[in-house]
Design goal:
This protein has a single domain, classed as outer membrane lipoprotein receptor (LolB), chain A (Clam), CATH 2.50.20. The protein contains 2 helices and 12 strands, in the order αββββββαββββββ. The chain is globular.
Length: about 200
């Protein structure tokens, strides 16, 4: 193969990859932007690099774009994470302690919190491609920054309904989240996103 043909082939490969990435970004943006509200139950398992289970939890999730988010873990311990649009509250019910964080610290709280945020920010933070060897609506997000908490996320949909997320973090752990009883674009009560603390709860700012 001569030099001109080699350059042409490389150009076509790069162009095809960029086109595929652009299509994946646009498709994921369309899917997520159609989620004005969502409620679901979840089961979450965290695995080590050798596949052993570290933790297993379940609970429920709700979000309303652009800023409202609720993640409630009921087992093995009760923890409520609420984004009210101003600050992130992490309430450990059994420990009677609540921690408040600024929104720029939100990524270390829960990966599903990414779903309720700005889709354009996902494009800034991750390279988005379609999953290989699948006919399902599946997207892989690879962190552009090596220091990002989540190195890679895989988001899977079925009939436009969110089914699962798989997250690889920078500690060589993999978290698998399965969603069930998903309800999209229903009216959510404002009280879902308000934190009403009982007396005696320790507050950490």
């Amino acid at each position: 193969m001569n030099v001109k043909k080699t350059i042409l082939m490389l150009f076509l490969c790069v162009t095809a990859n960029l086109y595929a990435q652009g299509n994946a970004e646009d498709s994921l943006a369309v899917l997520l932007n159609n989620y004005h509200t969502m409620q679901a139950q979840f089961t979450e398992k965290t695995l080590t690099s050798k596949g052993g289970a570290v933790t297993s939890t379940h609970g429920d999730i709700a979000f309303q774009r652009p800023d409202l988010f609720r993640w409630y873990t009921v087992l093995p311990s009760r923890q409520l994470i609420i984004n009210s649009g101003q600050k992130l509250a992490i309430y450990d019910v059994d420990l009677a302690q609540v921690t408040y964080k600024n929104l720029d610290e939100q990524n270390d709280a829960t990966p599903a919190l990414l779903l309720s945020g700005n889709v354009d920010k996902l494009k800034e933070q991750y390279n988005i491609t379609a999953c290989a060897n699948t006919t399902a609506d599946c997207y892989q997000l690879s962190a552009k920054n090596d220091n990002d908490v989540f190195r890679r996320l895989t988001i899977r949909f079925s009939n436009n309904t969110l089914k699962s997320m798989v997250i690889d973090n920078n500690l060589d752990q993999t978290t698998e989240i399965q969603f069930s009883n998903v309800k999209i674009n229903t009216t959510l009560k404002p009280s879902l996103f308000k934190l009403n603390l009982p007396a005696g709860v320790d507050v950490v700012q």
